[in-house]
Specification:
The complex is a heterodimer of chains A (285) and B (319). By secondary structure, chain A is of the alpha/beta class. Chain A has one domain: Rossmann fold (3-Layer(aba) Sandwich). Chain A has a five-stranded parallel beta sheet, sandwiched between helices. Chain A is globular and about 50 Å long. Chain B has 319 residues and is an alpha/beta fold. The longest helix of chain B has 15 residues. Chain B contains twelve helices and 14 strands. Chain B folds into two domains: 166 residues, 3-Layer(aba) Sandwich (Rossmann fold), CATH 3.40.50; 129 residues, 3-Layer(aba) Sandwich (Rossmann fold). Chain B is 39% helix and 20% strand. The relative contact order of chain B is 0.13. A seven-stranded mixed beta sheet of chain B has the order 3-2-4-5-7-6-12, with helices on both faces. A five-stranded mixed beta sheet of chain B has the order 9-11-10-13-14, with helices on both faces. The chains are: A alpha/beta (285), B alpha/beta (319). Chains A and B meet through helix 5 and helix 6 of A and helix 3 and helix 5 of B.
Amino acid sequence: MNPHNKSIEELKDIAAQVRRDIVRMVHAVNSGHPGGSLGCTDYFVSLYFKIMNYSTDFNMDGKGEDLFFLSNGHISPVWYSTLARAGFFDVAELATFRKLNSRLQGHPATEEGLPGIRVASGSLGQGLSVATGAAQIKKLNGDNNLVYVLMGDGEVEEGQVWEAAMYAAHHKVDNLIATIDLNGQQIDGSTDEVMSLGSLRAKFEAFGWTVLEADGNNFETLIPGLEQAKAETGKGKPVMLLMHTEMGYGVDFMMGSHKWHGVAPNDEQLEIALQQLMVKHASDY
Amino acid sequence: MKDFPYTEKKDTRSGFGAGLLELGRTNPNVVGLCADLTGSLKMDAFQKEFPERFFQVGIAEANMIGLAAGMTIGGKIPFTGTFANFSTGRVYDQIRQSVAYSGKNVKICASHAGLTLGEDGATHQILEDIGMMRMLPHMTVINPCDFNQTKAATIAIAGHEGPVYLRFGRPTVPNFTPADQKFEIGKAVMLNEGTDVSIFATGHLVWKAILAGHILAEKGINAEIINIHTIKPIDAEAILKSAAKTGCVVTAEEHNRFGGLGDAVAQVLVANNPVPQEFVAVNDTFGESGTPDQLMEKYGLTENDIVAAVERVISRKNK
C-alpha cells in the first residue's frame, strides 16, 4: 500500500508545493539543478503519493516494500522535497540543502544517513546496475515488491547503462521498472546536438525489455503509465518507461531549454516562479 | 631463524575459492558475482553448489560493482570476482561512489594481482591496486600470503561489515600458514622474532622474506619477519613495537613502490619513530610478459633483493 494514496487533484497540489520547494532550495544557495527537478516532479509525486508500496519508517534493507533509486542524482532537490513532504523527515530540513553539515548533500548520499536514500548517486550511469542488483535480491529473498529507478536521457550515453540493460534482460529481472526522463536536454545543449540518442524504444526493445511511454508532466497519463508498467512486471522482462517531460516544467521561463540545468534563479526570478506555482494551501518550509 | 615447513605449494586464488565454498555452506547471505572468469577465480565450486546465489555478469565489470552494491540492500553479502586490474582501475569510480561512499558491504575479490600472472603482460598485471583501494575512505585492504591464509581471510571478511578489497594471485606458493588459523583483520602476524632489522612483507613477498631470513641468518643477521596481511587498517602497534626493537625496516610487496605497503608503513614510522626504511617494490614501472620467476627477478622482488635491502638499511642505521 502507498501510505498516502492521493487523488489526482491532490497530486497536482502536492506537485506545485514540491516545485515551490525546488526553486526556493536552489535559490537559497544559488546552486543546484532546478530544470530536471521541475521536469520530474510529477513522477516523484506519483511514486511517493500514489504508486509505490513503502513505509516512511526507513530502513536500508527495505524488505517487504518497493524501492526507488535515483541514478541522475543531480536532480536531488525534487527527491529531497518529495521525501520530506511524504514524511521521511521534517520539511524544515530542506533549508539545509547544499549547506555545510547538512544531510541534504548536493547529490544524494548515504554518508550522513538521510532517510529514504539507499545509495549515493551523481556520477552518472550507475543506478540501473544498483537497482538491478537490489531487484535480484528481492527475488532471492522471496519479496514480491518492485524496484524503481530513474535515469536521465543524457545519462544513457554512459556505457554502464547498456551493460546493465543487457544483464537485466538476460537474467529476466522482471521486478524492475526503469524510467528514463526524456527531456531532450543535457548540459552542453540538446541531446540531438550533443549525442544523438536515436530511438531508445528500439534500443531497449532490442536489448529484450518491455518498453512503454508516457507523458511525464500530466498525471492523467503518467499514473496510468506507471500502473501499466506495474502490470507488465512478472512477465520475464525488465520494464522501461520512456517518460516525456519538459525541463523546467511549471516555470515558464525555465521550460524548453538546457540553460536551467544547473543554474539557480535570482531574487526576481524566484518571485515570478513562485507566482506561477500556486498551491491551494501553501506550506513553504 | 625459524623453519616454516610445508607439504605443498598452492595458489592463493584456490584459497579464495575454498573459502567462498565454505561460506556458501555456512552463511546463506553470501552471494557471488563473476565477470566471465569463474574458472580463473576458482568460483566454479560455489557456482555449482549454489547456482541460485551465483550471478554471471559477463564481461561487464562496472555493472558487476553496481549490482553488488544493490545486492547488499536486502541483507546479502556480495563477493565479486575478476582479475585485480579489472577489479580496481577499471571500476574505480563505481567502487568509489556505489560501494565505498555508500558504505556498502561488498567484498571485492581480485585474483592475478601483481606481476606473477606472468605471460599475459602489463595489461593484466596491476601494481597500483593496493594504492587505489587504500585511498578510499571506508575500504579495508587485505593481501594474504598463501592458500590457507587466503581461505581464512575470505571467511573472515564475510563477518566484517563494510567494503573490503581482497587481493590474491595465480602462482603456486608454499602453503605454510596453519590450516586452522584465525584470521584477524588488521592484525599483523609475527613469523620470526629478531633484533637487527624488521622485514614487513605482504602477499607473495612473505615467503620471499622467509627465504631472505635464512640467507641473512647465515650472514649473522637476525631478522624479525612480520606478515602484514592487512594493509588498511595497518597494524601500527606491531610496526612500532618491532621498529623500536630493531631500529630499521624493510618493506616488501608485489606492487609499485608508490601507494602500497611501503607507503603505509612509512606513514606510521615518520609520525612516531622515523627509523631508516628501504623499499622492496616495483620501481614505478609497468610489468611485461615473462614467467613469474623471471619477472620477479627482473623487477627486483626476490629474496636476494630483500637481503640487499636489509644490508643497505642496516648500514644506514649504523651511520
